[in-house]
Design brief:
Layout (H helix, E strand, L loop, with lengths): L1 H25 L3 E14 L4 H10 L1 H10 L5 E6 L10 E7 L8 H13 L3 H11 L3 E14 L1
Antiparallel strand pairs: 1-3, 1-4, 2-3
Helix pairs in contact: 3-4
Length: about 150
Amino acid sequence: MKKIVFSTEIVLFILMCCNQNIFAQTDRPYNDGPLWQVQFVHTKPGMTQLYLKNLADGWVKEMRAAKDAGYIMDYKVFEAQPASENDWDLMLMYELKNYAMLDGATQKMDAISKKVFGQSDDQLHAQAVSRNDLRVLQGGRLSQELDFK
């Protein structure tokens, strides 16, 4: 009889602990939203408009194709006044539904790039190198949007 009571107490204790974890997770004032891949760019002096044209001819076309294919949900470009001489002035972003969308993302985007531009890897590499004359990449982040209730 003592074993049954002791076993019942352990089961009730475990259920109470699990129950508290469930309530703790739903107590958040927000839900996890989509992911945003953010890239910060510092355009070199006098090169901003040329770089924006480069974005329109390349990155924007690639993002449109990726959105049409369902790989991304949206994309945006923000311009801002740099806070210092070496601060970013452009922020490039694209939105992913969830972390699962990152699986195979490199291969998917490579296929999109080849489809949109129809160029070899060497040609794409040469264009990427020439963009380095226009801008300095200042890092990026994968961020999760929080949707408040």
